[in-house]
């Protein structure tokens, strides 16, 4: 069973989103980090990069594979989690406190799932 945190929104590509005003904080879900296995590197995007919902915004590498992480929202990257440069394994230890990026929203997000919808989506 994966941990699904209440109060967040989820994308079909397994990112979680926390919205605070015009800022979206984005990370990967517990389900996603379990699929990745041991994360060894995170290729964080540049600040001020425009990102678009459903499009790749960064790459997470594990001992098993390298996977794209997709932006769940449209906007501009305003902050990246530099702690992941030295400790990418934080994603495995605590995926809901190990956010990847903060994005200034261009528009109201759509197509995201509630925790209940995401639980059904992953079959739990």
Q: How would you characterize this protein structure?
A:
The model has no long low-confidence stretch (mean pLDDT 96). It is globular and about 35 Å long. The termini are close together. Strand 6 and strand 7 (66-70) form a beta hairpin. The chain has one domain: RNA polymerase II/Efflux pump adaptor protein, barrel-sandwich hybrid domain (OB fold (Dihydrolipoamide Acetyltransferase, E2P), Beta Barrel). By secondary structure, it is an alpha+beta fold. It has four helices and nine strands. The longest helix has 7 residues, at 30-36.
Describe what is shown at a glance.
This protein is of the alpha+beta class and 124 residues long. Helix content is 18%, strand content 35%.
Question: Which characteristics define this entry?
Answer:
124 residues; alpha+beta; OB fold (Dihydrolipoamide Acetyltransferase, E2P)
Work out the number of β strands.
Answer: 9
Major beta sheet, specifics? Answer: 6 strands, antiparallel
The topology string of helices and strands comes to: EEEHEEEEEHHEH
| Spatial strand arrangement across the major sheet | 1-2-3-9-8-5
Gross morphology is globular
Q: Determine the number of helices (DSSP H or I, runs of at least 4 residues).
A: 4
Percent helix: 10-25%
């Amino acid at each position: 069973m994966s941990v699904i945190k209440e109060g967040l929104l989820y994308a079909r590509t397994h990112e979680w989103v926390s919205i605070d005003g015009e800022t979206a904080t984005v990370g990967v879900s517990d389900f996603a980090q379990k699929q990745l296995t041991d994360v060894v590197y995170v290729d964080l995007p540049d600040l001020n990069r425009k990102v678009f919902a459903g499009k790749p915004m960064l790459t997470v590498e594990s001992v098993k594979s390298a996977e794209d992480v997709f932006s769940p929202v449209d906007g501009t990257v305003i902050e990246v989690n530099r702690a992941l440069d030295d400790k990418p394994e934080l994603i495995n230890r605590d995926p809901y406190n190990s956010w990847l990026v903060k994005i200034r929203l261009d528009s109201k997000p759509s197509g995201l799932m509630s925790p209940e919808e995401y639980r059904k989506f992953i079959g739990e």
